[in-house]
Structures
1.
Amino acid sequence: MEKEAVYCFFCFLFKPELGGRQGGGDAFVVTGWKAWNKGKDALLSHIGKANSIHMQNELKARALLNQRQSISSCFRRQAEKSRKDYRMRLNASLDCIRYLLRQGMAFRAHDESANSKNKGNFIELLKFLADHNADVKSVALENAPKNLQLISSDFQKEMVHAAAHETTNAIIRELVDELFAILVDESRDVSGKEQMALVIHFVRKDGSTVERFLGIVHVLNTTATTLKVAMESKLAEHSLSLSRIRGQGYDGASNMRGEFNGLKSLILKTNSSAYYVHCFAHQLQLTLVAVANSHIDVAHLFTLTDKIQNTVGASCKRKDMLRERQAAEIAKALNNGEKETGKRQNQEMGLSRAAATRWGSHYGTVNNVIELFTPILDVLEMIEEEAMDFNQKGEVKILLDGLPSFDCVFVLHLIQDVLGLTNVLSQALQKKRSRYC
C-alpha cells in the first residue's frame, strides 16, 4: 500500500532461477509492479497459460499450504498405519499363544527355518490363521517387516512368561486377603531336575472352594528343609505369608509328612494353625499296597502279572497277537450269546502294570487279566513255541503253569471282589466335590 505496487505471493515464494522478463520478470517479486496505465492486461499476462511460471508457482504454493501433503503429515499417516498393522499382528500372535497355552501344547519345533516343513505349533497355527483371515495375512509372517514378525523364540518365551505372570496375578487378586491351604508335591522333570509344585486351596467370596496352581520351583534336593525354603520363597514372590496358611496336604513320603523333620512339622513350628490333612484316597491306596505286599499269595499274584506284562508286552508283534486273540475270543462269545453288543461294549483292552502311585491300578490290572485270561494263555503258548533259547522257554513255561493254577485263579477272583469294593470308595474320595479329599 505504501509503495502503491503489486507483488505476486506465489512467484515470491517460488521464483525460478531463470533470466528474462517472462511473466513480468522481477517486477512482481522484487521491485513491485506499478504500470497501472496498462491495466488488467498486464496482470493477465503475468498469470499466463496453464503451464506458465506463475501457474507452476501457484501449484507449488498450494501444495505447500496443503497440510495433508506435508512431510510430517505423511509420516503421521505412515506411523498410524504401522501402528494398526502392528496391533493386528500382535493380536494374531497373542490369539495363537492363548490357544496353545489353553490346550497345553508345545510351541516350538527343532527346525523353524524358512525351508522347514513343520515350524512348530505356534508358527503353523499363525499360518493357519493368516490363511483364513485376509486382514491378518496382509500384515503377518512374510508380509511383515523382517525385524517385526513377532514369531521369534525370544518373543514366544516373553509372551508365555507374561501370560503366566498375568494368570498368577489374577489368582492373587481372587485370593485377596483370605486364608488358604497349601498342596505340595515333588517330582522330576524329563531332564532329571528335581522340582516342587505348589497349589493353593481357598474359599472364594461366593463360598465355593477352588484350587489354583501357583507355580513350579526347581530345587536342589527334596529334603524337607529345602522344600520349605523354596515354598516360602515362592509365596513371598506374591506377598503371601506362612501365617495365612490354615491347612497343608502332601503325599505319604517321609520327607513330606515326617513327625520330626518333615515339611509338615517344619511348617507347624512356624504356624501352629496350619493343620495337616493326609488325602483319604491316598491313605486308602497306601493301605491297599501295604496289604498286597504283606500277603504272600497276593504278592505272588502281582509278581506274576508283572512278568506276564513284561513278556506279552515286550514287542509290538506280541501285542498284536494279543489283540487278535482277544478279537477272536469276543467274536466267539458273541456267537454263543455269552456277550452283548452295544455302546462301549467289548472294547479293546491291554495289559497294564500295577503301580503304587497310580490309584486304582491294581484293580484295573486284575480286571484286565481276568478279561484276557484265555488270550493271554494262547499268546504265551505261541511265544513258547517260537522261543529260540531254553531260558526264554523256561520263563514262559513258569507263567503257563502258574497262571491257570487253582491257587492263582482263586486269589485272582478273590482280589477282584475285594478291590471292587475299595475301588468304589476310592472313586468317591477322588471326586471333585468330595469332602474328604
Note: The radius of gyration is 41 Å.
2.
Amino acid sequence: MTEKVAKLLLPGAEEAIELPMYQPTLGNEVIDVRSLNKHGVFTYDPGFMSTASCESKITYIDGKKGILLYRGYSIDDLAEKADFMEVAYLLLYGELPTRQ
C-alpha cells in the first residue's frame, strides 16, 4: 500500500520534506506536520482554524456547518431519541445497544 505524502520545499533547501497525509472518515484530508520541528520550522495557525488537535474515533466536529457527531450519530438525534445510558454505551463500545 502506498502512503500518500505532501511535499514541502523550504527556501534554500535542496530536498523537499515529505509529510504523511491521512484520509479521515469525514472532513478534509490531514497533513501530519510533526516532523517539521526536525527541520527547524513550525506551523502558524492563529485560532487553530486549520489544525486538528487529536485523532478521534468518537467525536467529529465541524463548527462552521454546525455538525457534532458521536460515533457517526448526530448529537441532535441522540438527544431526542437516546437516553444517557444508551449514549454512554455508544461512546464506550462504538455502537448503540440492542435489546439483547
Note: The chain has two domains: 1-51, 56-100.
3.
Amino acid sequence: MVESLLDKIDGLGETRRKALLAVFGSVTALKSASIDEISAVPGIGPKLAKVIFAKLIRQESIDTSTGEILDA
C-alpha cells in the first residue's frame, strides 16, 4: 500500500481523500489550492479545509477543535 500525505491528516478518511483527489487530481495540485477551493469539495467543511491547508501547504500545527492555525 502506498501512503499519501493525506493519510496523516486527522478527520480525513478514505471517502474524503478520494473526493479531494477526484477534484484536484493529485496531492501536488491540492497543495496549490486555497482554503475556499478545498472547502468546496463535497464532504470537506471550512474547518477541515483549514486543517488540510495547514498540514499540506504550510506544514503548520493546527488546533483541531477550533481550526486555528498555531505557530509551528
Note: Helices lie at 14-24, 27-31, 35-39, 46-58.
4.
Amino acid sequence: MNDLRRVLRFISPYKKEIAFATVFLGLVVFADLSIPRLIQVIIDNGVAEMDMDVILRTSLLMIGASILSATLSIANTFYSVRASRGFEADLREAIFKKVQTFSFGNLDDLNTGQLLTRLTSDLTMVQMIVSMGVRMFIRAPLMFLGSFGIMFATNPNLATVILALLPVTFLLVFFFIRKVRPLFTQVQERLDYLNQVLQENLSGIRVVKSFVRSDYENSRFEKANSELYGTSLKMNQYTSIFFPIVMALMNLGTVAIIYYGGLQVSVGTTSVGQIMAFTNYLFSTMFPVLMISMMAGQISAASASASRIMEVLDAVPEVQDSPEAIQLDEIQGRVVFENVTFSYRDDGGDPVLTDISFIAEPGEKVALLGQTGSGKSSLINLIPRFYDANVGRVTIDGFDVKDIKISKLRSHIGISLQEVILFSGTIRDNIRYGSPDATEEEIIEVAKMAQAHEFITAFPEGYDTLVGQRGVNLSGGQKQRVAIARALLVKPKILILD
C-alpha cells in the first residue's frame, strides 16, 4: 500500500483539477439527494391532496435537479479525466525515462515482457484508481452520510431498519476484500509471464518456424494463458457471489421498509411518500457500499501494480556517473585493461574474465580471438561501461572509464553489437540514428566505407527504403553493414565491431 501512495504522488500537478472535480461532485450529490425528497412531496402533498399545482411545481423542480445533476456530472468528468489521464501520461513518461537510465545489468534483471507489462496493464490499473477514486471515494461517503442524515432527520425509527443491515454488509465487504486481494496480485503476475511468453514468441517467430516448434510454443502459451484464466476466473467467482448477496440485502431492506413503514402508515406516524423516499434512500445508502467494495478490489490490484511500477522507478542503475566524473571532450583512444576480472553476478559468481591485461594504442587494430563463450563480447562491453569490472580497471588515455561521464565516454565510441538492432523507419534514418544532423554526403560516405552503398542504391527507394520490423527485409549481412555505417557516422575515436 505504501508503494501505491508513492505512485499517487504523481497526481500532485493536478490538484486544481481534483479540487474542481470534488466541488462539482459534491453539488451532484446534493442534487441527487434532493430527488427522493421531492418524490415524497409529490406523493404526500400532491397526489394525496389531489393538488395538481404541487405536482406540477415539484415535477419541474425534479426536472431541474436532474438537469443540474447531469450538467455538473459532465463538468466533474471533464476535470477528473484531465487529472487521471495527466497522471497516467506523467507516470508513463517517468517509467520510460527511468528505463533509459538502466545499464545492461538492470535490463538483464527486468526482461522486455516485464517492462511492457509495467508500462501497459500495471499503469492502466493504477490510472483506474485515480479515475474512479476521484468520483467514488468522494461520492460514496457523501451519498452514504447524506442519505442517512436525511433519513434520521425525517424518521429515525424507519432509518433504524436500514442501519440494521449495515453490519452484515460491512462483514461481506471485509470478506470480499480479504479473498480477492491476493488474487489481484496473482493475476498481474500471470499476465506478466504471459506477456513474456508472447514477446519471446513474436520476436523469435522465425526461429520457431525454422525448428518446427509451433506445437511446443502453442503448449507453452496455452499453459500461461490457462493459468491467467484460472486465477481470473477464481477472482470473478468471488465477485459474482458478493454482488448478488449485497443486492439481495438491498431488496430485503426494501421489503423491511415497506412492511415496517406500512405499519407506521396504518397508525398515522408516517406517510406513503416517506416510504417511497426511504426506498430510494436505501439504494443511495447501500450503493456507495458496493462502490467502495469495487474500489477496494481495484485498490488491491492497483497496490500490486504500484509495487511492480516502483520496482522500476526505485531500481538503481548499476552503472552511473560518479559525482567527480569528468567531461573529457577530446580523446586519443588509448585503451588499457589492467588486471580486469569480471562476473555478471555481484555475489561472487564464476568470473567470465579473469585477470585480463592488454593495451590498444590509438589507430591500432586489435582482434580478439577465442572460443564461443570465452568472454570476447563481455570484454568489449566494459569499454563503453555497459558493465563495470569487478576487479582491476579499464582506462582510456589514462583515465579510468568510471571517472568519465557516461554520455561523453560513449560519444567517443562507435559500436556495432553482435545482435544487430534496426529501428522502424528508412535506411537513412537508421544510419544517422547516432548523428541526427549528419548530411547526405556524410551518410553516403560511411555507407560506402561499410560497403553498404551498393546494395542500398539497388533498392528502388534507395536510402529512403523502409526497414521492416527488426530489419526483416534486409539480409543478415546487409543489416550488419547498416549497423557498421551507423557506428562510423559518429566519427568515433574508438570503433568496436562485435
Note: The chain has 17 helices and eight strands.
